[in-house]
Every structure is written in C-alpha cells, then in structure tokens.
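Hypothesis: this fold can be encoded by more than one sequence.
Test: take the structure tokens below, design a sequence, compare later.
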C-alpha cells in the first residue's frame, strides 16, 4: 500500500488547508441541501459492504489527488456530491460557469496546460454502471479506467492502489437513479400526463429518441456530432431536471436553451412541448434532502466503521488513509456546522450532549488510533477507537456508533 503511505505523508497539508484556491472559489457542497442518494445495496435492505464503504470514503478523500488539488481539499465528492452534481462548484479562471471545470488547466497540473479552454460540465454519476463508455466524448471503456484517468491525468494524483480503484468502482456501481413516478420503466409517460407533455413525447420520438432512447435510460451510449464542436457521448436524461447547466461544456443554462440548441428549426410551440416532456421524464421524486449536522456525522461514522476491519487486518497504511480522510472531511463539516447541532437542540433538553462539541478533540482521538496502528500496537489502537466512539457519543446527539466487527 505504498500509494496510501505517500498520501498519508501529505495529509497534514490537507488538514491545515495549506493551499488557497482563487478568491471566490466554491467547492464545498451546499450547507442547505444535498442531492438525494440511493445505493443499490441499501435500497435492497442491506448495507454498505467493506469494499463499498471504502469506496465511499475514497470518493470523499483529497488524498488520492496531486498536491495542488489535495491541499485545496478537493475530492470526487466536491464535484459529484452524493454521486450527483454540484451546481455551486466554481473556481474563477478555471470554471466557465457554475457547475463546470477545465480539467486541462494549470491549476492542478502544470503539465496538463494546453492553452485551450476545455470547460466540462460536471455530470451526475447516478446510474453510472449503465452508462458506459465514459468521459464526455466516450473515449474510455471501463469505469475503473475512467476513475484512474480522473485521479492521475486530470488531478495529477499518484497511481492509485488497486484496492482503492476496486473500491471506487464498487461504490459508484451502487449509485441508482432517483425514482421518478412520472415515467414508466420503459421511459414512457405515466398516466396523468398533461397535454403538453403528451405532445412533447410525440415530438421527442421524432426528433430526439434516435439518440436519447427512452427504454435505455434515454441514451444510446454512442458519441455524435450535433454541432457542438466535436463528437460527444449522448448523456442520459434521467434525473436531468436538477443537473443544469447542459451540454458537454455547460453552454446551455436550462432545458429551454438546450432544446433550442439541439432542434433550432422546430417551432417555439414544439420546443416548449419537448421541454414539458423533459421536465416530466427528467424529474426525480425527493431529489434533495436537507443538509444536517446529524447526516454529516452519520456519513463520517460510515467511514470510521472501516477501522474495525483495518485494525483486524493489521493494515496500518489503510487505517491512516481512513483516519486522515475522516479528519479532512470533518474540517469541511466544521466549516458548515461550526456549532454542530447546538441551536437545534436548544429546544430539546432531552437531547442535550454530555460535553460540548470539540472537533479538534475528535480528530485527535482518531489520530491516536492511526498512530498506535502504525506503531504496531493493535490492542491499544482498538482501545483508542473505542475511546473515540465514547467521546463522539458524548459530543454528538444520537451519534450513529458503527457496530463492532469481530476484532
């Protein structure tokens, strides 16, 4: 796990926030709302396996990337929040508009600078296991190779460990589309459609469905030149309503502009009908969820739950990777919820914490786990992990303490 050891050696810079992005940058998810997420195993009544939970952790880890991205605290989840998109993502000088990024600029890798503005709309990854090939131009056949490409070629990261790539693919393979009660399983309008939606469906079949095939998630999986400066893979239209802007480079700010850009010869009334169809077919039931301190700490608890097994395995490097990732994410949570749940719990005396929230103390507790694991003292590391959970339960109301594995 030499890659993980190198990442761990750079983690201090991440935790200190050593590198500043340009003024006006926004890479953190909104503190008001998150895109909803449905994982295949959980919707089936199960839970995240070790490899999926590791992928979940790696997806939020800056440690996979090169120095500039790592020190800025960037991770897969910065762009693809909960596996969807981040409409607030913006780095002045490197994003043409919110929700986009030029991955060939000099900010993250000087060697990638080509003097051309190659702004890419940040896509949703929902249902990604159905959507090969990958990349906006569809040039990469496998999800595993695409994940490696992003880490190494776009963000100048070291060659990722095979286990980490396997875990990322396992996690992303869990992403489901958010259900949409307005369409049937074969992509047709469900009963109750409006006249405009019905007219739009008929127009869509004639003008759009050859590429956006309704029965296969509204995509044919092929690349086409539709007059947008090159050949680009047909994107899915599932859950498309809340993933603006549109087009491979985000040139269209809304569905109206996207339809006009694709079928300019159509009448305004026909285009409006297609927009009505897309608003129905691309909708999502319960597309967002409130961003809460409890939800954030529950996600971190999923990551921390990996430590039971990393300690059993005697894998100090993976233990350090998990700890440093959790601590980097905890700093992001601290930025969004500096007081934790204090204000919400003020009216709930029955839910008061036993001791005040202290993010630094929590991070210190986890660092002790990693340090003891690196020293080869497994027993003390296990005891330190139990002490961390005890402290978290006192500081965080309803802390979702992970179930212990056999150790």
């Amino acid at each position: 796990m030499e890659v993980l050891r190198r990442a761990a050696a750079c983690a201090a810079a991440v935790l200190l926030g050593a590198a500043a992005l340009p003024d006006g940058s926004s890479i953190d998810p909104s503190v008001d709302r998150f895109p909803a997420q449905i994982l295949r195993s959980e919707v089936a009544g199960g839970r995240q396996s070790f490899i999926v939970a590791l992928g979940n952790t790696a997806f939020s880890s800056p440690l996979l990337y090169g120095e500039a991205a790592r020190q800025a605290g960037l991770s897969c989840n910065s762009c693809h929040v909960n596996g969807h998109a981040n409409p607030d993502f913006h780095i002045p000088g490197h994003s043409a508009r919110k929700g986009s990024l030029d991955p060939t600029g000099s900010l993250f890798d000087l060697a990638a600078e080509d003097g051309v503005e190659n702004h890419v709309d940040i896509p949703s990854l929902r249902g990604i296991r159905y959507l090969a090939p990958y990349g906006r131009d569809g040039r990469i056949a496998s999800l595993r190779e695409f994940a490696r490409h992003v880490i190494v070629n776009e963000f100048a990261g070291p060659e990722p460990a095979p286990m980490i790539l396997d875990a990322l693919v396992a996690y992303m393979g869990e992403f489901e589309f958010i259900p949409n009660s307005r369409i049937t399983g074969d992509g047709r309008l469900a009963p109750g459609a409006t006249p405009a939606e019905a007219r739009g469906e008929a127009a869509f079949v004639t003008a759009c469905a050859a590429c956006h095939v309704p029965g296969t998630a509204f995509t044919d999986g092929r690349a086409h030149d539709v007059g947008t400066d090159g050949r680009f893979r047909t994107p899915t239209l599932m859950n498309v309503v809340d993933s603006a802007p549109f087009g491979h480079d985000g040139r269209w700010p809304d569905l109206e502009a996207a339809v006009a850009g694709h079928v300019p010869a159509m009448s305004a009334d026909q285009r409006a009908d297609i927009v009505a169809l897309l608003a129905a077919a691309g909708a999502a039931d319960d597309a967002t969820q409130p961003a809460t301190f409890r939800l954030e700490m529950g996600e971190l608890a999923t990551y921390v739950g990996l430590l039971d097994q990393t300690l059993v395995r005697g894998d100090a490097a993976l233990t350090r990777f998990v700890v440093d990732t959790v601590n980097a994410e905890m700093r992001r949570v601290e930025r969004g919820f500096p007081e934790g749940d204090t204000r919400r719990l003020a009216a709930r005396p029955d839910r008061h914490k036993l001791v005040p929230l202290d993010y630094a103390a929590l991070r210190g507790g986890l660092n002790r786990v990693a340090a003891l694991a690196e020293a080869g003292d497994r027993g003390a590391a296990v005891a330190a992990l139990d002490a961390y959970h005890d402290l978290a339960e006192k500081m965080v109301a309803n802390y979702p303490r992970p179930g212990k594995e056999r150790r």
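Confidence is low (pLDDT under 50) at residues 12-18. The chain is about 45% helix and 5% strand.
Hypothesis status: open.
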